[in-house]
Amino acid sequence: MEAEVAVIIPAYNEEKRIVRTLTTLKEINPLYKIYVVDDGSTDATAEKVAKVKDLCLIKSMKNKGKGQALKTGIKAALASSDIIVFLDADLQESAGEVEKLIKPIVDNEADVTVAKFPPAKKKGGFGLVKKLARYGVYINTGKKLDTVLSGQRAFKKKVLENLTFNYEGYGVELGMTIDLLNKGYLIKEVEVNMFHNETGRDLQGFLHRGKQFFQILKVFLKKTK
């Protein structure tokens, strides 16, 4: 029997990119169950998603952060799915690479897969956020992973049934990764040709990375007490 795959997409103000992400997913496999959790968007994200057929749109009136959006999506998808995938809303055409994350799960080569992106095309920050996340995983688990912060992941159902999401915003990937490794689950990093909206070395980019760093640091400190 073919595995039932659910894709959960947390979305916040992604009106420019999310429709292409969704249509790409539906083109590669129309059997995927797609759950979009609109996290209190102030643009037309929800309205545009609502026009796409055969998916589930879950709307939040307030922005509660990525961790809560994923938790909402899991609650909706878990009962009827064998494999659950997290994807970002801004992948556009590169969302088709999702099958590379699903195959090792189907083949029982891993409990969880994490997408490893190609190098960024433009200069972003100075690597502090990524270094903090990698160190956070190593100091709490003794394991080394290159791709700690990737939001593109696939899970066996049993993994998510045994995982608690108590992390806010951008700290969710770090907290989740530490918990998964400490529970003994096998994580496989998978190289993909995905891309997403990159932040540069402008004020907006530094503010974004500053918010990331703060939220990841909160999880780091919580885990290393």
Shape: globular
Number of strands: 7
CATH superfamily: Spore Coat Polysaccharide Biosynthesis Protein SpsA, Chain A
CATH architecture: Alpha-Beta Complex
The largest beta-sheet arranges its strands as: 3-2-1-4-6-5-7
GO molecular function, one term: transferase activity
InterPro entries: Glyco_trans_2-like, Glycosyltransferase_2, Nucleotide-diphossugar_trans
Protein name: Glycosyl transferase, family 2
Keywords: Transferase
Please tell me about this protein's structure:
Pfam families: Glycos_transf_2. One of its GO terms (molecular function) is transferase activity. This is Glycosyl transferase, family 2. Keywords: Transferase. It comes from Clostridium aceticum. The protein has 8 helices and 7 strands; from the N terminus they run βαβαβαβαβαβααβα. The chain has a single domain, classed as Alpha-Beta Complex (Spore Coat Polysaccharide Biosynthesis Protein SpsA, Chain A). The chain has helices spanning 18-28, 45-50, 66-77, 98-106, 128-141, 157-161, 172-182, 203-223; strands at 5-11, 33-39, 56-60, 83-86, 112-116, 153-156, 187-191. It has a 7-stranded mixed sheet with strand order 3-2-1-4-6-5-7, with helices on both faces. It is globular, with a radius of gyration of 17 Å. It has 225 residues and is α/β, with parallel strands linked by helices. The model has no long low-confidence stretch (mean pLDDT 90).
